[in-house]
Write a structure and sequence with these properties.
Order of helices and strands of chain A: HHHHHHHHHH
Oligomer: homodimer
Number of domains of chain A: 2
Largest sheet of chain A: none
CATH superfamily of the largest domain in chain A: Tetracycline Repressor, domain 2
Mean pLDDT of chain A: 93
Radius of gyration of chain A: 19 Å
Number of helices of chain A: 10
Number of strands of chain A: 0
Shape of chain A: elongated
Helix content of chain A: over 70%
Structural class of chain A: mainly alpha
């Protein structure tokens, strides 16, 4: 019964919001199976362990988010305007989550990094790959802005890493205060980190 | 036996590194008592719950860290030089922890914010108070730098919050990559966030 073809998808679909909201250690396999409506035997048919499930959840979540980031960051408009849109969409996404579950759950990748990355190497490696991919996507936009004379940075990759760090830090505050407006600071801070002139960026972001 | 006068201190001393390293949900009261060398009955004599212990650990950890921050941020030298020293001491502290336990465990306040702040109101409130106190301490230094013409910021509190956000973001990367050198970027990023001129700050930080 449980090993029907959609049991794996049911488990993943149930685990994703649970991990996002409550983290990894607080969750048990039995609770995930109950939420998914599948027997526990099914779980171990599809996943070797809770860690294997977490890796699959990370992969699936990043696949969706990478698509969103690519659409925004490789879309039309001036490079810095696209970064601004990324911040706005991130804030809108957190707000939608807050409206549906009553609380800002933050960034699943940041959450699991601080909860787990020093404890399990497979999860650490996967999170490193995800953050490297994020930094690389931002780096391309930063380099493009620099080449257009709209940003002044020495090392575009380091600048991109600092922008992602600022994003994670402000998402941490948004979660702490259950208030997504902490992300409002991102755009101005990004301009500062890129030594971008406000007048230039005002025109490119319009 | 267990309810001797130092059992509470033993529990706190054992819980602090365990929570810092592995978080809250992954730990059980039995494990904490075993590490502390006290019977479980003792635990509930001193602490109503694991949450009550976590609050006490947060208080004790912040009391020590607040002392360090005050010594550095209210110490001698130009204001921005003191901020730089804070970053350097934070990095040195993370490095010392890494050398003793093999892994960068990050910032306990950041860790518990992302693991727990959306799940328990008492811990959320305590973490808010701690981060507000951090932001306030940085704000005073930023305002002092601004008054000396060494930083250009509109809202010193918002600038301070962005500096603390940047700190938390880079500590997240330090934990993810088990490499404290991610904190090296803090000083340059801080100057950018404060629109501080490098030439000014080079002289004040010497």
């Amino acid at each position: 019964m449980g090993r029907t073809s959609d049991a794996r998808e049911k488990i993943l679909a149930a685990a994703q919001p649970l991990i996002e909201l409550r983290g990894y250690s607080a969750l048990g396999v039995a609770e995930i199976c109950k939420a998914a409506g599948v027997p526990k035997g099914s779980f171990y048919y599809f996943f070797e362990s809770k860690e294997a499930l977490a890796l699959a959840v990370l992969d699936e979540h990043w696949e969706a988010q990478r698509g969103d980031w690519a659409r925004v960051l490789r879309g039309g408009g001036a490079p810095l305007a696209r970064l601004r849109r990324l911040f706005e969409e991130t804030e809108a996404g957190l707000r939608a989550g807050q409206q549906s579950c009553g609380t800002v759950s933050g960034c699943m990748f940041g959450n699991l990094t601080l909860e787990l990355s020093n404890q399990t190497e497979p999860i650490r490696e996967r999170l490193q790959q995800i953050f490297e991919a994020q930094v690389e996507m931002v780096e391309k936009v930063v380099a493009e802005a620099r080449d257009r004379g709209e940003a002044t940075v020495g090392d575009a990759r380091e600048a991109a890493r600092s922008i992602v760090a600022q994003l994670e830090g402000q998402v941490l505050f948004a979660k702490l205060y259950n208030d997504t407006r902490h992300l409002d600071a991102l755009w101005e801070n990004c301009l500062s980190l890129l030594s971008a002139r406000r007048t230039d960026t005002a025109s490119v972001s319009s």
